Amino acid sequence: MPLRGKTERIARLFRMHANKKERIKGSESRGYCGSVGLKITSTGDTLSDPDHPIILESIGVYRPVMSVAIEPRTRDDLEKLEYALDKLVDEDPTLPSSTMRIQARR
Q1: Distance separating alpha carbons of residues 47 and 54, to the nearest angstrom
Q2: What's the rounded Cα separation, in Å, for the pair 37 and 50?
Q3: What global pTM score does this model have?
Q4: Of 28, 71, 87, 105, which shows the fewest CB atoms inside 10 Å?
């Protein structure tokens, strides 16, 4: 049974070589590969055969070594920035993100 109770459709698999990728038809047991376009799966999830499920240990969350403050210029920029940050956090759950509202200066 999948962790999220759903199955994921995998269109393409890749064997990763540093900054290059090679398209492959499948992966063997103990094999690691990459995929693109997954809708449900996120970083740290393990995909396996539903008849032979496995769950690997989740990745650890580390403390950040630096932080950056980003201030949008307009309200439209704020919405775009929030959307982009949400996407980044979806891709990398170790990335901390927070919002601090500051009153406008007079």
Answers
A1: 8
A2: 20
A3: 0.47
A4: 105
